[in-house]
Amino acid sequence: MSKLFPHLFSPIRLRGCTLRNRIVFGAHTANMAEGGLPTERHAAYYAERAIGGAAMIVVEPMPVHPAAVLTRGNFRPSDDSVVPHFRKVAAAIKDNGAVAIQQLYHVGAHGDSDNSFHPHWSPSGLPSYHDSDGSHPMSEAEIWETIDGFVQAARRCQEAGFDGVEVWAAYLGMVDQFWTPWSNRRDDDWGGSLENRTRMSREILARIRAICGPDFIVGLAVSDEPDYSVALSRDELAEIVGMHDELGLIDYVTCGSGGYLDFHKLMPTFLYPEKLGADLGATLKRTVKKALVIAESHIRTPENAEIVLGEGAADLVSIVRGQIADPHLARKAKDDRPDDIRGCISCNQMCWGRRSRDYWISCLINPSTGRESEWGGDRFTRTAEPKKVLVVGGGPAGLEAARVAAERGHEVALMEASSRLGGNFLLAGMQPRRGQILDLIQWYERQLDKLKVDVRLNCYVEASEILAYGANSIILATGSYSPETGFQKALPAVETLPGIERGNVFTVEAVVARQARPGNRVLLLDEGGGWRGCGTAWKLAEDGHAVTILSPDPFIGKELQRTTADVPLRRILRKLDVNWLVEVSVVEWHGNGATVVDHNTGRQAFVEGDCLVLATTNMSANWLAQDLEGQGLPFHLIGDCAASRQAPYAFHEGRKVALEL
To answer: pTM for the complete prediction?
Structure first.
């Protein structure tokens, strides 16, 4: 029993199963199917979280009807031929000690015709909030067809070996659309009264129970959108869930946040408070008499989970992104080793961000996510031939390379030119609300210390010193730098920004590191549309500067759109009185302002400013690599010094090169 997390590691009964703890790896679209069928990638992904100690795993949503297909990596609604394929996934979970559940869903109006090639179906024909299409008001025959889709999918799950299913009634999907008066405007037996609006869900759940028997677990997933008056209130949701509970139709209910109306809270980034699902969980916990309550949504850590359970807001907690980042979170927490957990940084960049681009998911800080079948999970095999390994550069790529090489038994030294580890990622952690990045860097410091990596700070090395060190393997992770030329991709013929020699021009790195003293009125040129520029604008505004962002993009935070962070970020910036001009570039800096050009009209205008801050593309700091090449010394080049990119590729290359040593 854990001394730190006594609530979290007490077992609990769910229908005929005993869960070894209160940690659930909840449903989310891993998007790994090929041809609509689960793959070895799927099985290994879920197996790793079961090995890591999760008590129950809810496998990603199964569309129950062709109209419900939402991504190219979705499972396909099909016939019984899918059962042997799903059997492999269920076995991978159960053989490693976890209870296996499959989520069943239908998105209703919010489909994706590019993937489904099917009209969107909904109660009353309202528009999709997923794309620009409308939907088809369902006939009674189509309602029964959809109900049967849920039931037959549940039957196949049982035949594949799953312990139960979770019916998706969250995010204003199909079931929720029938529940909600705003989206259900029917005047037949499926609309109007509460009894009629809940007829679909009651039929689905009762028929699943009838066909799958008394030992099969049947759960329900719900979420709330309290900022939208047309959505069901928490009290209305509680009444509906309470009705299903009183009828004995559900064994548990999972409580999330957001939905198709409030999409940005569906997978909340660090811009939102933690434990978002706990309030709804507490409301339903006071309502239900039989079903267990699972709280999810931004419950990242065992500490979060213990608080939710200790307050009586839920019976179990779903930690999804926390176990994507560290699949062994549960095991480490059980052993009272929370400091060894690689903490999720709530960035959404490679989980939701990759899913939103219709790729299979991964993780910025854990590149083994999605590659478990290729890399042997998030665990390491000791090498039979230890080497003397030198890593130059202590940013994300170098940190991961050094850690994994040491985990595998190599003798590792890491040399960092500055006084702190982290590289430019450290500066990102100094932006507002991004302290989770600093926590991650501290995690690396602890791991390197435990692994006895020889970390040398303030250690700038030349090629001759590397040669003298006598390493068997040399890994260069020397990062990137701003060229400070003001070159803009949108103006490719202009190598150097005219007027840059007039001064008062700084890089975002210099500003965040407090190496520059920007004046009151700051113009920030953002060609990336990500946190590098937007986060620096936020920091400057919080520090009292009057900030105007200049961007060639059609809207601010374009790169952040796929992580669902752009809308809440723009709201924050507006509250801080940050202004912006979009679809513009800087044609000249005057020392006291900039001439900008509108890319749509070609018109130029002068914008006043005391300084210009550049968030343009960095260049690789690869001069050490050039020197080593000149001496014929072999080495590995990883991270930004190979090419300036975003952080996930640095972590990926660090892991990959260390696995190959």
So the answer is: 0.96
